[in-house]
Specification:
Two copies of one chain form a homodimer. By secondary structure, chain A is an alpha+beta fold. Chain A is 42% helix and 23% strand. Chain A binds a DNA duplex through helix 8.
DNA sequence: GCAAAATTGTTGCACCGGCAATCGACATTC
DNA sequence: GAATGTCGATTGCCGGTGCAACAATTTTGC
């Protein structure tokens, strides 16, 4: 299958960021990737199985589901066109802790991990860049998870919220920002009850620390907010 | 510096697992690694800085410290000879979230990340293995952290303990096992108070679920223990 | 433009678990 | 053997937060 029409998508991924057409040509020639179409609701990946391929979503969107200890499953991430999945997994010998389901009809291409990790003898410069990108991608996911842990181990909800707000503001580069999260979603990320989150955000507003409206947040007193984290 | 005396140590690391002498010779020749000695209490790595080297501990032991939001720092890991540090970090563009301190006098060798990620033109087979090992190492750390998150998001302490016990038993391959953790250490991992942990373990013993003595645990009723995790 | 569904805020209640203090069992050192 | 330090267990207290229920508002679908 000719992947050229999808080169802009591929270039947008953290794995193949900024690669030129001729570079992609050469690499994809090496990889001989398989491409597959899915209907909404089909599974691209099943929890409990190993995988030796890195998937890139060319069309549509997907949901990652994690099986809870009690048998049901909860959504943990959503990804749209250009999304990468199986990247961490294919490099490890672990069985997948998540299933990946097609949220809409979609199209995915799979790069064999063996080919990625074993640069061919021609040793294309772009392949080395790809390797670096792979490690970078995985490492960044590691640190994202690490920050999450740092949030989760904070005992009081007030601290978790404060840390999260400061982190978001830092990321946004300004003290006013919006996030694409509902209250329920934020509560889940912060691992607390939705009503408790509302309650605490309300308190923090009354104390003049922040202002909130839906997904928008404004930090009014950064210093005092930082001091909330002390314990 | 001649590293030959340390080849057994290097072979024991997840990065250079099982490499033959001649392979190590060739690779270390490529890498031109630096070696440095530290006195007890010196820092091998400082939080807040980037690093572009993977460190391997050749002698002695080290402690990884994480700066808490309130300014102090807590120990999160200890490593002895053969320990690997900076592996995840050097592949990312993140600033180190941890400092690494020499717990005893020690000796470390540093492999430049650039050289690791850019296999030289001679394309040694062992270098490709090294790359695979690097990705494997980082991926495994990711999944270890992922399991930690899964523990932490469980609301009740009873569930967290039950999950942990089942995971440990699974890892040990039998229902009786010992872990090198004090109660305080376990409490920290499970993110709870030490006394609360004792209380709950006591309750679980009275209920006939488990038996504990110091660092030893015995699961008496695996089925019922699993059912504890339901909510 | 209306009904249904989703999202958010609010509040009372109950209870889990953090905290602090105390005790006993052991190990280590002088 | 006395002194000291480490580790685990126990207990009373009470504050934070999960839970359930309901109201207010916005969004979605037809």
């Amino acid at each position: 299958m000719n992947l050229r029409p999808y080169y802009p998508v591929l270039r947008g991924t953290s794995l193949l960021r900024g690669m030129r057409d001729d570079e992609l040509d050469k690499m994809l020639d090496c990889f001989a990737p398989r491409v597959r179409r899915y209907q909404k609701g089909e599974f691209l990946m099943l929890a409990g199985y190993e995988t030796r391929e890195v998937g890139i979503l060319l069309e549509g969107s997907i949901t990652a589901l994690k099986n809870t200890p009690d048998g049901s499953s909860v959504a943990i991430t959503e990804m749209s066109t250009g999304g990468l999945f199986g990247d961490v997994l294919s490099g490890s010998s672990t069985k997948s802790p998540v299933s990946v389901m097609a949220q809409t009809d979609c199209l995915a291409v799979y790069l064999p991990y063996e080919k990625i990790i074993h640069p061919c003898a021609r040793l294309h410069e772009s392949h080395l860049q790809l390797l670096q990108n792979l490690v970078l991608t995985i490492s960044n996911k590691y640190f994202a998870l690490d920050r999450r842990v740092e949030l989760l181990i904070c005992k009081s909800l007030r601290v978790r919220i404060s840390l999260w707000l400061l982190e978001q503001a830092d990321e946004a580069g300004q003290d006013t920002f919006a996030v694409p999260l509902t209250r329920a979603g934020l509560a889940e990320y912060l691992n607390c009850d939705r009503s408790a989150l509302s309650r605490e955000l309300g308190r923090m507003q009354r104390e003049g620390l922040i202002e909130t409206f839906r997904g928008s947040f404004k930090i009014l007193d950064k210093e005092r907010l930082r001091s909330q984290c002390q314990e």
